[in-house]
Design goal:
It is built from 17 helices and eight strands. The chain is mainly alpha-helical.
Length: about 475
Amino acid sequence: MPCCDDGKLVVEPKNGCLPIIIPGNDPFYSDKVECIRFVRSSPAMDIGLNYKEMQQINQNTAFIDASHVYGSNDIVADYVRTKSGGRLKTSDNDDTGKPMPPFGGHLTDAPACPKAIEDGAPKCPITLEKDCFLAGDVRIDMVPGLIVIHTAFIRFHNIIAYQLSSFNTNWDDETIYQETRRIVGALFQLITYRDWLPILLGDKVMNDYNLNVASGGYSKTYNPVVIPTIRNVFATAAFRFGHSLPGDILKAAEKKDDFNQTFHFFDTCIIQKAKTSPSSMLKGLARCPMEPFDTVVGSALRDRLFERPAGPENDPPQPGLDLLSLNLMRGRDHGIPAYPKWREFCGLPPVEKFKQLKKAMGKKIAKKFKKTYNGKIKDIDLFAAGLAEKPLPDGILGPTFSCIIALQFKWLKHGDRFWYESKEQPKPFTPDQLRALRQTSLASILCKVTEGLYKFQKNPFLTTDVPGNDVMDCSNHKFIDLSHWQE
């Protein structure tokens, strides 16, 4: 719908158009735009036909099931498959000749890319040289780093599918695809909970919320009473913590090839060049430390999100957006309660007075919140305060975000009937298969799918200066042993 298109206010906005008005003293936007486009989320009923509370639609699957690879609905899931040998579609159009995601996706056609399916592939919004990529998640084209991750897991799927078909020549396409998808989904769960979540939350929170995965045997995880649905506060506030972490510069294999991501949103062309190919970008990401978790956000996301220069066919330039303002507005749109309410929900010390706020986030930042919210602590937005809280001793996040995120991951684990460790699921992994999964590392997967990668650190989520996270030859990173799937 028309809503602050090109940064200009709509005279008679339609219901749902709720633009963010730019004040005259804004240091960045005031001489560029009048407003920032914001459209309210589509409403949905709460679980159990609760008519008292309005919720919003989640277009993705709630579970940790690698839906970014396979899609969250039947149309996408069917379209990304070759229907031969259990493989996923790829294209071979980068300078290295290695498999890339298939062409045919576009953000405005989410989630099923109907134009790609019905009318042929649309062009990228930045350049007409290349088409956009298609994957299980429509956000694949947003930033080059996402394209790299999607590419890695598409390649990984096809390697597994090929090996399974070699071991089991009698398996048809459907059997190979479903078993490969099951393996990839299991490893995605394992890597998330074993290698990434402890870094984010710390050991104490992992233990307090029973989030650790078993090192051997089966684990009785499933509880049919647990509702795994993604909670609104998780999606709309807490899990957006990551917007504080990226820097403006994306690193490639060689420092001279590093580039500013401000100019490469929705740019699928750069990732197809040898100097900034998925292999080069992966090496760069591995050596790129995150920015500190705090209220400071890089210009690429704060002022210039999705900024676009004038197009080749006299298309006008598109001013950038402010992701933090959008996050705050989205929280209000969804009715997310204010920060003090979530402190209470998590059983944390209350924040009702300025003195308590200083203890939670420090004197300097607390004074800024007091000024911004006119001394009304009860009105402070959760997203903003969550970024400002002092981190827990052994994690990255503060206590409120840690609580909300830990609860969500607990529900996702214990509410998943198909959790990889569970013996009660319809088709559990055998003990040998579970052992093979646990011996597999993300480093081994990245080594396998990335050309020219001969060494990698033990845990790709940590930089090499972390004690024990040494760089190892790829031959020493154990890849999954698929002989345990041979019938």
